[in-house]
Amino acid sequence: MPSECVFGAQWGDEGKGKIIDRLAVGADYVVRYQGGANAGHTVVVGDEKFVLHLIPSGILHPGKVNVVGNGVALDPQALLSELDGLLERGVKVNGDNLRISASAHVIFDHHRVMDSLSEKWKGDGRIGTTGRGIGPCYSDKAARTGVRIGDLLEAERLAPRLKAALAEKNAWIVDLHKQAGIDFDEQLERFLALGERLRPFVGDVGGEIRRAHKAGKTILFEGAQGALLDIDHGTYPYVTSSNTGTAGIAAGAGFPANQIGGAYGIAKAYCTRVGEGPFPTEDHGDGGYKLRKEGNEYGATTGRPRRCGWFDATATQFTCEINGATGLIVTNLDVLSAFDTLRIGVSYSSNGVNLDGYPAGLIDLEEIEVEYEDHEGWGEDITMVRKWEDLPAKAKAYVERLEELVGTPIVMLSVGPERDQIIPRGLEA
Ligand code: IMP
């Protein structure tokens, strides 16, 4: 297996955690390169369910090196709570199998406070963020006022940067929003203590993975969120603040883009979205309600009910194309067993004119109309199926139609949350 990437091909929550856990078997390194604790990657191992927010999903496999790259917006408290939770459950985590970039940006308390105040301020224009401080942290990074994990290791480096940041942020929090300010001394002491706990894990991880790659090791890049939440190519401004797909790897992990051997887009057999923003194939009626119920569509990070709708072939074709997907992995196919009729959004039109593919920013996605194709459901349980040949003919026809519309080979199907509920279709893992 060459070095490869897994990315979300929709709006996140596509079931990446399980697929990464599966592909991690063949990898030496598993690397997160963007996002932060806004992600929630769920992996079910036997009777145990693990929800990972920051630590790469490879941590559940002994012998893999898990890397948090420089592009991650890292909340030290969230990472350490996750680490403690894993240790309590008997998962081995130490400085050998978890590596954190010294250049990853730190999420402080003021970032979370600003995230929620800014959402309140926006009112109806709110994004519906996860409230994890992601946007404000990346804003500081771009404004060059951020603090990096390496800075937490030296009081002389942290103190002036934190002081300058808090002076400005407190003016915003106290003067504009009339909320209690954040105390510099308390923050300095607490974040230095958090830095001390992180010290054994911190290093130049970009250099480590480049050396490992040269030595023939295999790297698996774990994208978080989804390509339609990408800061540049997603449904702006209803997006997250990072490059969620393959474009984020070079910047967020220090790994050359031309060395990425393959990219697997992950898409549910239908579609979900949390937070605000356009969702062309959303089903506001019984179909959407039933998809939420059958798919247990509630956020792994915030517990929010997800908006539900049908597979959007136009948007998925776009996300696979822009990320250079070499394969598509379709998850939650089993959820569709409960439906007599399945819908696929096959194309978009605007003012009665058919659009050629996904519109680039110029046409408001809220305004477009979707043309659907209806397919008869297969109406039987497929959670025990492990081979493509054993799937009901109507399920095969549905998958083949998705493949044809998206124009990317569907290389694997997932038919349940367990590790082994997989149907390989070209990609063995
Ligand atoms: P933020 O990343 O918390 O700033 O949220 C921005 C938007 O991205 C909101 O609509 C969130 O609901 C969405 N979002 C962020 N992370 C995830 C995720 O892991 N899964 C699904 N949606 C997400």
Could you name the key traits of this structure?
429 residues; alpha/beta; Adenylosuccinate Synthetase, Chain A, domain 1; Adenylosuccinate Synthetase, subunit A, domain 2; Adenylosuccinate Synthetase, Chain A, domain 3; 3 domains; 4-stranded mixed beta sheet; 20 strands; 31% helix; 20% strand; binds inosinic acid
Total helical segments: 11
Oligomer: single chain
Helix content: 25-40%
Number of strands: 20
Q: Provide the CATH architecture of the largest domain.
A: Alpha-Beta Complex
Rg (C-alpha, Å):
22 Å
Q: Please report which band the strand proportion falls in: under 5%, 5-15%, 15-25%, 25-35%, 35-45% or over 45%.
A: 15-25%
Structural domain tally: 3
Largest sheet: 10 strands, mixed
What does this structure look like?
There is one protein chain. By secondary structure, the chain is an alpha/beta fold. The chain folds into 3 domains: 3-100 and 202-259, 3-Layer(aba) Sandwich (Adenylosuccinate Synthetase, Chain A, domain 1), CATH 3.40.440.10; 105-198, Adenylosuccinate Synthetase, subunit A, domain 2, CATH 1.10.300; 267-424, Alpha-Beta Complex (Adenylosuccinate Synthetase, Chain A, domain 3). Helix content is 31%, strand content 20%. It has 11 helices and 20 strands. α3 (109-122) packs across α4. The structure holds inosinic acid. Residues 11-13, 38-40, 127-130, 132, 134-135, 224-225, 229, 238, 240-241, 274-275 line the site of inosinic acid.
